[in-house]
Amino acid sequence: MNIPRTPRRATARVSLAAALVVAAGACGGADAGSGDGGGDGLSGTIRVDGSSTVAPLSTAAAQLFQQRNPGVRITVGTSGTGGGFEKFCNGETEIADASRPITAEEQARCAEKGVGYEELRIANDGLSVVVSKDNDFVDCLTVEQLRRIWEPGSRIDNWNQVDPGFPDVELELFGPGTDSGTFDYFTQAVNGEEGASRTDYSPSEDDNVTVQGVSGSRGGLGYFGLSYYEENKDRLKLLRIDGGNGCVAPTGTTVQNGTYRPLSRPLLIYPSAAALDRKEVEAFVEYYVENNAGIARAAQFVPLSSAQEAELRQDLTRLREQHSP
Amino acid sequence: MIPTAVTSDPPEIPRLKGRGTPLREQFFRLSLWASLAIGVVFLAGLLTYVVVEGWPRLNPKLWTNFPDIIDPSNAGAQSAITGTIWVISFTALYCLPTGVLTAIYLEEYADRDRWWNRVVEINIQNLAAVPSIVYGILGLGVISRGLGFGQTVLTAALTLSLLVLPIVIISSREAIRAVPQSIRQASLSLGATQWQTIWRQVLPAAVPGMATGSILALSRAIGEAAPLLLLGGLTFITFNPTGVHSQFTVLPIQIFNWISQSRAEFTALASAAIVVLLVILLVMNSLAIWLRNHFTRRW
C-alpha cells in the first residue's frame, strides 16, 4: 500500500466482520431476483452506482461481462461516491463505485442498515494539474503553492503572487464542482480538509469545460483526472508536482507506486456481502478482478502495480472462500 | 372580462397606417425584428451545430444499438430512446387526466370565496416555479423510498408528472376560461345540467388550448435530466424497459453522460442523440399544432 490515507487492511477487516454478521443473520435482501439459470446460464440484475470517475471502469467491466453472460443485466449509475454509498447502504444497489475509501460516517450508516461489504482496489487514478500550452513560465508547483492558490479565502489572482519569479499574468482557476469526488480528493490532498476550497473559481461538473477554459487562457490553471489530460495532450501542459521530494510528473509508474504525491488515489469497488452470495454477482466481481488490467486500459486508467495486483488476487481468493453460493 | 355577445365575424380592424412611416415607427419595427432574430438565429445556430457535430453518428446504429463504452463507433442510444418513450407516455397518462380535472374543478366548480380554494390556487402558482431538482428530491424521498417504488419507470413518470402538473393545470384553466361565458349560459338556459354543459360544450371548445399546453408541458418533461439523475436514472443500461417496474435511462441523461466522457467520439454521439431528442420533441409539438388547428372553434 502506497497511498497514504487508506487504512485499507483495517477497513477490510471491519467489512469482513460485517459480512459474516449479515451472512449469518439473514439471507439478504436480494430483491433484484437471482434466477437459477443453472450451469453457465447466469441471470439476474446487478445494480452498480457511485463515483463518476469509477463508472467508466465498471461500465467497461459490465459490458464485457454481459457479452459473455447475456442473461445478466448490469446497470451503472453515477450518483457520485457519496450518493453511491447512500444508495448502497440503503440496499438499493449491489455494488458501490468509489474514488475514495468509505468514511466512518458511511460505515456507520451501512452497519445500521445491516449492509456488509468488501473493499476491492481495482485501479489507480492520478489527478493532473494543468495549465495552458501558452504558459511558458510554470513547469512545476509545490503542494504548498497549490495550497496557497486553492485554500479557502485565498486572494491570489496573479501568477506573480504565487512565486515572485513568475510574470505578471492574471491567474484564472478552473476545477470540478463540489459534488465531484475529484473535488473532494483534491481539497483533502492539497488543503488538508475535504471540501475546503476557495469558491471564486469556474466550477464545472463536466471536465471537458475545464479543459476548454484552461486551454483558452494563458494564465489558466485547472485540475482533473489523468485521463482527461491524456485525451487533450495537444491543448494542455501538464505540471509536475513537488510533494516534498522534488518535482514528479504523473505517469503510469509514479501513480502506481505512489511517488506522485499527494495527487494519486485508489479507485475502489464495494460489492455488498449479501449480493456476493448470489452466483451472478460473484461471477461479475471475479470477472472484474481478473480482467482489471485490461478494463483499466480500456477505460484509460492506470492499472494496478504487481504488488497491488497480488493483493487484489488474494482478496478475491478470500472472497471465493467466504461467499461460495 | 369575457365578451357577452356571439359575433360571427371579427370586427373590422381600423387601418392605423398613415401615409409614409415616421422614423420612430421604423425604428420600433426594426427593434421588434431584431428581438425576433435573436431567438431564431440562436436556435438555427444551435441546430446547425448539433447536426454538423452529430452527422457522422446519425446512422441506424444510434437507435438499434445499446451504449458501448469500449467502442464508441458501435454505441447507440436504444435503451435511452425507449426509456424516454416509456417515461413520457406514463407521465402523460398520470398528469393529463389529473391536471385537466383539477382545472375543471377550479374553473367551473370552485367557490373562490372559500379559503381552501384560494390556498390551492396559490399553491399551484408557486409549484410551477419550484426548481426541477426539488421534485427530484421529493421523488427520491417519497415515491422511490417512501412508497417503495424504487428506481423505476413508475417513479420517474410520477415525479415528472408532479413537475409538469402545475403547467398542465394553468394552461388548461386558461383554455377553459377562454370559452365564452355565453356558451355556458346558452347551454344552461336550454336545460342542460352543469355536467352536460361542461362535457358537451366547454371541454370540446377548450381541447385545442388544453392540448397545446399539455404537450408543451410534456416537452419540458422530456428534456429533464436533473430530477431523474437524482432518482437514479442510469448512465449504462443495455436493456429496454419491459414494464413500469423496469429500470431505465432517458435521452437527457445519456447525452449528459456522453458529453462528460473524455473521448471526442462520445461528443459526436451526444450531438447525434440531441438530434434524436429534438426530433421526438418536434413530432410532439407538431402534434400539438395539428390538434389546435383541427379542433379550434371560432365563436
Automatic annotation (TrEMBL), chain A:
Instruction: State the name under which the record lists this protein.
Output: Phosphate-binding protein
**Protein's job:** Involved in the system for phosphate transport across the cytoplasmic membrane.
Gene3D superfamilies the UniProt entry points to: Periplasmic binding protein-like II (3.40.190.10)
> Known Pfam families for this protein?
PBP_like_2
Q: Name one GO molecular function term.
A: phosphate ion binding
Q: Do you know which SUPFAM superfamilies this protein is assigned to?
A: Periplasmic binding protein-like II (SSF53850)
InterPro entries, A to Z: PBP_domain, Phos-bd, Phosphate_ABC_transporter
Superkingdom classification of source: Bacteria
Q: Record's family?
A: Belongs to the PstS family.
Q: Where is the signal peptide?
A: 1-32
What biological process terms from GO does the record include?
Answer: phosphate ion transport
Where the record annotates domain PBP, the positions are: 42-290
Does Transit peptide count among this protein's keywords? no
Q: Which UniProt keywords apply?
A: Phosphate transport, Signal, Transport
From TrEMBL, chain B:
Entry keyword set: Cell membrane, Membrane, Transmembrane, Transmembrane helix, Transport
Q: Which GO molecular function annotations are given, in alphabetical order?
A: phosphate transmembrane transporter activity
Stretches that traverse the bilayer:
27-52, 85-106, 127-147, 153-171, 268-291
Domain ABC transmembrane type-1, first and last residues per copy: 81-288
Q: Which Pfam families match?
A: BPD_transp_1
Main location, first listed in the record: membrane
Topology in the lipid bilayer is annotated as: Multi-pass membrane protein
Q: Enumerate the Gene Ontology biological process terms.
A: phosphate ion transmembrane transport
Q: Which GO terms describe its cellular component?
A: plasma membrane
The entry's localization annotation reads: Cell membrane
Extract the PANTHER family matched here: PHOSPHATE TRANSPORT SYSTEM PERMEASE PROTEIN PSTA, PHOSPHATE TRANSPORT SYSTEM PERMEASE PROTEIN PSTA-RELATED
Tell me, in a sentence or two, what this protein's role is: Part of the binding-protein-dependent transport system for phosphate; probably responsible for the translocation of the substrate across the membrane.
* Family stated for the protein in its record: Belongs to the binding-protein-dependent transport system permease family. CysTW subfamily.
Record's protein name:
Phosphate transport system permease protein PstA
Q: Which organism is it from?
A: Streptomyces wuyuanensis
Q: What is the lineage of its organism?
A: Bacteria, Bacillati, Actinomycetota, Actinomycetes, Kitasatosporales
